[in-house]
Design a protein that fits this description.
alpha/beta, 6-stranded parallel sheet, 13 helices, 18 strands, 5-stranded parallel sheet
Length: 442
């Protein structure tokens, strides 16, 4: 496809708007692109309606709803491209990786289609050079006090329902030295909290070093001056490394929090999903985590309505949620993804049953969350201020990740001084709701 020459005649024409859909891994890709373009003299903005000559859409292609959102966003931008509101439109990311040929035929208004594995090509399409010396530099789109650190790409697990290996390829780790340098650069920008992400963080290092090195990496990140919290996301449960548990337990900077998507508990469902773990092993892992790290907040995600999920499987899942009392939990209906092993199975659970099962678990989890929060009333917790919203300062403890978990609301009128985002304070929990807490500065 012929790419038009880009001439920055005025400020709006020199501006690039990067719109990111999907997960935090896409956020990191967009921020790397932003840094490269800014170094080339472009003004980069994120997800705004301000005039911009160029729009880059970083899309998600993981599940049906995400794909629909991505397509609708592309169509809306294509209409603006046709109307002359923008000069160039580029689409990248997971949706483009999977469906570039079909999308190119259906939406010719797009100037360039790029996948999820070659973000450097997006920079070059804007007549800019990809500079390797900037590989650890980011132009943040998050609030300046926290940032995601993507430590690897791709996944080797090949779960039956998941299209990520088809989109992102096999697991590829980034070297420890490069990640530590990126963490130092982020800290120099004022980042206090690093959120470590990958398709599977526990597999980190196998391809580079011949063994899992996540625990070593976490300890190295804790040595970066200016970083006060290190938070771990997207940990795969099968073969969970014991040294990672030890690192969380012993390193003061590592949040006593873990995101560990379990998906189900029934042996028959876990086997069909190709999760590589059994019911007994799952329960034992949770026991190990809680025994080694008292008070750890465990976040998980579950899938209901997967092919073959019986009433008995679902009852077992509900009982598991009731007994385990997760701190954070999300539930998703099974969505068939072409090319996956599960797509060859009959999608035999009706959509209304899937929705009923989601409602049942989320009602149970709401009660569990409320009970957990009530037990925190009166406790004094170390929190970070995220922002001011109306008459409240919005804060989080180490037990909550930004954007996905609950928050602690501190009345502005009860504070004696202005609380700046990114600062840490001691807060006493004064009241609890299902998914939020209230507190006061002490």
């Amino acid at each position: 496809m012929r790419i038009k020459s880009f001439a920055a005649a005025d400020k709006s024409r020199a501006r690039v708007n990067i719109i990111t859909l999907g997960c935090a891994k896409n956020v990191v890709d967009s921020e790397h692109i932003g840094a490269q373009l800014a170094a080339a003299g472009r003004e980069v903005i994120y997800d705004t309606d301000e005039p911009a000559a160029v729009v880059i859409l970083n899309t998600c292609g993981f599940i049906g709803d995400a794909k629909e959102e991505s397509v609708n966003t592309i169509l809306a931008a294509a209409a603006r491209r046709t109307n002359g509101d923008i000069e160039r439109l580029y689409v990248m990311g997971c949706l483009s990786q999977r469906y570039a040929d079909e999308l190119r035929a259906e939406i010719p208004e797009v100037d360039g289609w790029f996948g999820a594995r070659t973000i450097d090509d997006v920079v070059r399409a804007l007549d800019a050079e990809w500079r390797e010396e900037l590989a650890t530099t980011r132009l943040l789109s998050t609030p300046p006090h926290y940032a995601y650190l993507k430590i690897g790409e791709g996944c080797n697990w090949n779960c039956a329902f998941c299209a990520i290996p088809l989109i992102r390829g096999r697991h590829r780790s980034r070297p420890v030295e490069q990640l530590v340098e990126e963490a130092r650069n982020l800290a120099a920008k004022g980042v206090k909290e690093l959120i470590v992400i990958a398709q599977d963080t526990t597999f980190y290092g196998v391809d580079l070093y011949g063994e899992r090195r996540l625990a070593h990496l976490l300890r190295e990140l804790c040595r970066v001056e200016g970083i006060e919290w290190v938070r771990l996301h997207y940990t795969y449960p099968a073969g969970f490394p014991d040294d990672v548990i030890e690192a969380i337990a012993t390193e003061p900077k590592i949040c006593k929090y873990i995101d560990i998507p379990l998906q189900h508990i029934s042996d028959s469902q876990l086997s069909s999903m190709r999760r590589g773990i059994t019911t007994a092993e799952t329960r034992a892992l949770i026991e190990r985590l809680r025994a080694a790290i008292p008070g750890i907040a465990i976040r998980t995600t579950l899938i209901v309505g997967y092919p073959g999920e019986t009433d008995a499987d679902f009852v077992e899942l509900v009982d598991f949620v009731r007994e385990t009392r997760f701190d954070r939990l999300g539930v998703f209906p099974y969505s068939e993804e072409e090319g996956t092993a599960a797509a060859r199975l009959a999608d035999d659970v009706p959509s209304e049953v899937k929705e009923q099962r989601i409602e049942t678990i989320m009602q149970l989890q709401a009660r569990i969350s409320f009970d957990n929060n009530v037990r925190r009333e009166g406790a004094v917790e170390h929190v970070i201020i995220d922002r001011r919203e109306g008459e409240f300062y919005v804060a989080r403890s180490q037990y909550d990740s930004p954007e996905v978990d609950q928050e602690i609301l501190i009345p502005v009128g009860d504070t004696k001084c202005r609380l700046r985002p990114g600062t840490f304070h001691a807060v006493r929990i004064t009241a609890a709701e299902e998914y939020d807490l209230y507190g006061e500065i002490i």
